[in-house]
Specification:
It is built from eleven helices and 13 strands. The protein is of the alpha/beta class. The relative contact order is 0.14.
Length: about 350
Amino acid sequence: MKLSVHPYFLEFIHPFALAHGVRTGTQLAFVKIELEGIVAYGEASLPPYRKETFDSVKKWVESQYENVEQFITTNPFENPDNIPFSSKNPSASAALQAAILNWHAESKSKKLTDFFIKTTSTPELTLTITKNDYPFLPEKLRLVKNFSHFKIKLTGSSDDLDFVKAVRKKTNLPFCIDINQGYFKKEEAILLISNLEKQQCILIEQPLGDENHEGHYWLKQRTHLPIIADESICLFEDLVQFHEAYSGVNIKLMKCGGLFQAQKMLQFTPLNNTNFMKLIGCMSESSLGVAMASVLASQCKMADLDAPYLNKNDPFEGFHIINGKIELEDKISLIKSVFL
């Protein structure tokens, strides 16, 4: 068996503006497993506001070589605990797990979706708009016909509401708001949220800091809009401990450590909140990473998986959103001319 890790810089079509700052792309790490004539990949996305780096991913994945070699040819779905996992290295864990599961699926001539729960539900699909996108709004409006909602990224600044109103003048499509921890004071956040209630907004994601669970609970008690956790709930243990402060959670493989961990989060139902919303999301990822998350999408209320439509040098192909539905080709294929 050959196990290797490769760097790749994923570039945005337009600069991406968040409360964390503006960036032109995202560092990725691709995990590659080669065995018995089968080559399989997994992906780690490493935005600058996360602790993991390419070097940390490479070091951790390579340290797991002997563990992987011992069980790679066994069925990982029968013994998922055999797959290496580290809560301190969730993106690396997700990438290694993806490569292992993709290798297993191909070795059995099956699709990865064959191994996970499937429902007949179709999740609502969001297309992201940042403040840097406003000059390109006509381009977004042409693309949004394949999606059900916009996700508008705000920054916690004084022009947030003006930006929302400017977008609303161009489209009446329902929208979500993602603030990415932009507000420091809950009193400022509730003023914005109160105004957004009048603008056809359907939910608010992560308005306050990731550790401010009390502040998010305070907001939840003062608005009918769902308050969704992103950065505040990463792992399954976070969900169990902090779910009462929120109306729902945006689950991401890069935060929780992989498909098995995400599935466990989806199966968690708070006793006192049967309407707790489950979203599946992604960071800035290629078609490979997003396709992995989409395996679980039918179990979710909403899927925030538009990353391949925001970048310009995707090294993989096979993931599509068409007429409001996710469509996966039989195999997510590497475009060799642009990778490695």
